[in-house]
Write a structure and sequence with these properties.
Elements lengths: L1 H19 L3 E8 L5 E11 L2 E8 L2 E11 L2 E10 L2 E12 L2 E6 L8 E9 L32 E4 L1 H4 L5 H13 L2 H4 L3 E3 L5 E4 L5 E3 L6 H10 L3 E6 L16 H11 L3 E5 L3 H4 L5 H14 L5 E5 L6 H4 L7 E3 L8 H10 L13 E3 L12 H13 L4 E3 L8 H7 L2 H7 L8 E6 L2 E7 L5 E7 L5 E6 L9 E5 L4 E6 L2 E6 L4 E6 L1
Parallel strand pairs: 9-10, 9-18, 10-13, 13-14, 14-15, 15-16, 16-17
Antiparallel strand pairs: 1-2, 1-8, 2-3, 3-4, 4-5, 5-6, 6-7, 7-8, 11-12, 19-20, 20-21, 21-26, 22-25, 23-24, 23-26
Helix pairs in contact: 3-5, 6-8, 10-11, 11-12, 11-13
The structure holds alpha-D-galactopyranose.
Length: about 500
């Protein structure tokens, strides 16, 4: 008994000591899939059951509030301004000697996880400098249209499947594949490099590429030699979303560089913009790059990525935008895709038209998180919405069930219809929705969707889309004529599925 008690004493001491020793630098490092090292830190000062400090990740230092220590448990919160909406995230942790197990709560559809942080220094952190004043820009003047993207841009983007694993070689192999597998012939023309290509700047402020992209000009030339076009990514703030170099204070210089390399498309992603710009200057910030691209003298499609905040779809066209994201990031799940596609696009039709499109984010077709039925719904809905069709899967090896979805020419023709009218929802009864858009040949594209758990009959009322009299129906997935229709059209639609029709 006495021996047991004696053995417990150092343990009890260790626990009380670790709580007091919270002060200092706690570090968690990890490798990205392409071998880069990233870190996340807590810099803490403990004082009688409480602590203060900040959390550093993605180049941001975020102050901690309500730090509490109880025995080996800690808790704190970080309060963030998420585009004008103040959000508080609660963290908890467990101390064990020089390890702090931090529980990161689930966010943005990502599950919660535990990070084992190490105590790498016991020195108390210096207080954070007061935040630098944000730059306010005068209201934006209108940027002239570049005349591009008369139909929604089609192509491929590296992010959804490859994230930071994008490289020169992947872009070349993807371009080769697009020529070989029919994607190019079907209209998928842009091969777009997303985030993580950037390095720092040289002494003259010229943006540099990292070792994954040894020669951008040669790469652009290669993609052009295949009859395709090439796109790039940047951010208006000092850092991109993945914490690479952004275009802050180098907008004109970067636009000229993209043009000199031979790029045809730029996705411009807000991210760290909030660190340096007054939030309400966002329109002017985008106008700055819109004008810089125009002034570069090269036709470059301008893709705004500001997630639809501050009524982005209403002013995207005024800053020279050809497309603008309308929501946060899509994920390869039914819940994410259907929520973005059905719930968040319904009021946006007035803002789309030739040269300027709503962008509900890139396709996830073929990435493995949804069934073929769900991917057909994804492709149908995006086509009805006149959305950009940017494939987001590995195009070097596409199984037949997936090519059939991406290469359905009758569906693509709906997306690319010259009239450029985005669909509206013409009816919604619980899980059953009908969406329709008028087409340039006087016909209509109509989607009968079933978001529910079992096969159900869905009825489209032609009067809801302004169709009177008789018309002929064609099923664009069955590739079959369905005869004459008057008044209504009813079809059995599988769970999470669609029947996509052309009525004429
Ligand atoms: C944001 C964008 C994504 C992608 C990543 C890259 O999350 O919305 O589409 O570009 O940044 O870091």
């Amino acid at each position: 008994m006495t021996i047991r008690l004696l053995l417990l004493i150092p343990l009890l001491l260790a626990q009380s000591r670790s709580a007091a020793d919270l002060t200092g630098h706690w570090l968690y490092t990890f490798q990205t899939p392409d071998g880069q090292t990233r870190e996340m830190s807590l810099w803490l000062t403990a004082k009688a059951g409480t602590f203060t400090g900040y959390m550093s990740q993605f180049g941001n230092d975020e102050p901690i509030t309500d730090g509490q220590i109880t025995a080996d448990k800690i808790s704190f919160a970080v309060v963030r301004d998420n585009f004008g909406e103040i959000r508080r995230t609660e963290y908890t942790g467990r101390l064990n000697g020089d390890t702090l197990t931090l529980y990161m709560p689930a966010s943005n559809g990502r599950p919660g996880r535990e990070l084992a942080m190490k105590h790498v220094s016991a020195e108390a952190p210096k207080p954070l400098p007061p935040p630098a004043p944000k730059t306010s820009l005068p209201p934006a003047g209108e940027v002239q249209s570049n005349g591009l993207a008369q139909t929604p841009p089609m192509g491929w983007n590296s992010w959804n499947k490859f994230a930071s694993r994008v490289s020169d070689q992947l872009i070349r192999e993807t371009a080769d594949a697009m020529v070989r597998n029919g994607m190019k012939d079907a209209g998928y023309i842009y091969v777009n490099i997303d985030d993580t290509w950037e390095a720092g700047r040289d002494a003259n402020g010229n943006i540099q590429t990292n070792k994954k992209f040894p020669n951008m000009k040669a790469l652009a030339d290669y993609v052009h030699s295949k009859g395709l076009k090439i796109g790039l990514y940047s951010s208006p703030g000092p850092k991109t979303c993945a914490n690479f170099e952004g275009s802050f204070k180098h907008e004109e210089q970067d636009a000229k560089q993209y043009a000199a390399w031979g790029f045809d498309y730029l996705k411009y992603d807000w991210c760290s913009g909030s660190r340096v710009y007054d939030y309400h200057s966002m329109q002017a910030v985008y106008a700055k790059m819109g004008q810089a691209l125009l002034d570069s003298g090269r036709p470059i499609v301008f893709s705004l990525c500001q997630y639809g905040v501050l009524k982005g779809p209403q002013w995207g066209v005024k800053v020279g935008g050809n497309l603008w994201r309308t929501t946060g990031d899509i994920r390869d799940t039914w819940d994410s895709m259907s929520h973005i596609g059905f719930d968040l696009q319904a009021d946006l039709a007035p803002y789309a038209g030739p040269g300027h499109w709503n962008d509900p984010d890139m396709l996830e077709v073929g990435n493995g998180g949804m069934t073929d039925t769900e991917y057909r719904t994804h492709m149908s809905l995006w086509s009805l919405l006149a959305a950009p069709l940017l494939a987001g899967n590995d195009l070097r090896n596409v199984p037949p069930n997936i090519s059939e979805i991406l290469l359905n020419k009758e569906v693509i023709a709906i997306d690319q219809d010259a009239r450029g009218k985005q669909a509206t929802r013409t009816s919604k009864e619980g899980d059953l929705e009908v969406w329709a858009r008028p087409l340039s040949d006087g016909g209509h594209a109509v989607g009968l969707f079933n978001r529910g758990p079992s096969t159900t009959k869905v009825t489209a009322r032609l009067a809801d889309m302004g169709i009177t009299g008789k018309c002929k129906a064609r099923d664009l997935w069955a590739h079959a004529d369905r005869g004459e229709v008057t008044g209504t059209y009813t079809a059995e639609v599988p769970s999470h599925g669609v029947v996509l029709l052309k009525l004429k």
